[in-house]
Each structure stands twice: as structure tokens, then as C-alpha cells.
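Intended use. Records like the one below are meant for learning the mapping from a protein sequence to its folded structure. Do not use them to infer anything beyond what is encoded.
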Amino acid sequence: MPISPLGASHVAAALAALVFGALVLLMPKGTQLHRAMGMGYASAMIVLNASGLLIYRVTGHFGPFHVLAALSLATIVAGVLAVARRRRGWLSRHYQMMSFSYLGLLSAGTTQMLLNLPAFHGPVRGTITGVASAVAFTTFGFIILPRLQRRALSAVVAD
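Structure written out for the chain above:
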């Protein structure tokens, strides 16, 4: 089945977000390059989630994947607004929002790959797979991200 322009933009944005997000996580924080890659990540995630909200191929209607796309979009906006506003605790909030955003991206990608396997076809199995993936990645995030956050924020390059 050929991919639609909407589907193609969704996939392209997902791939761009995966790359930009990985680079942001691996590079020193607070640098000009970090900011540029972060803007690339945020932009790709906005396109990804906006296009995801318009795709109805899996269930035929608004469903749990759309809710997760809206939640992902809210997470990105909160992470970017934390930087723009720079209120007390902004750096920690920014780190948390963007980190969970990337975990959400990995969870969605994992779900999408699993949905292409025959054992996971169908709206009910797909929903269960998506929820299980989201729970697994979120649990991982609550366990590992606080440790990584301390290390990352202690090495931030000052403005």
C-alpha cells in the first residue's frame, strides 16, 4: 500500500525527531548547538504530533493514539515554554518534559513497529500494545531519568 503525503510527513518527522532527540541527549547541555538541535527536535515533534492527530487508519476514529499525540504535544510545549519563561525551576522542568517527550517518542516507535507484526494487528491488540509500551517507557523514565538529570544538569554550560 503506498504511503500518503500525510503519512510520509509523519514518518519523516518521526525520524528527524529520533535523530535530533538523540543528539540533544548526547551533547553538552546549554550550548548553541544544543539549542539548535533542541529546536529541530521540538519542530519535528510538533509536525509529528500534528500529523498524528490527523491519521485515523488504525481505528477509523479518534482514539487512544490521538490522546497520546495530544499529550506528547503538551509535553513539548511545556518543555519549550519552560525555557522561554525561565521561571524558578525552569531547567529541571525543561529537562523532565523533554526527556519524557523523547521516551514517549521511543514508546510510540516501539508500538508502531509491533503493530506491523501479525500478532499485534487489530484495534484492541494495538491499543493494549500501545498502553503497555507507554507504561514500560514511563516506568523506565521514573526510575532512570532522575539519575541522568542530576548528571546532566550539573554539567550545564551557563548562559
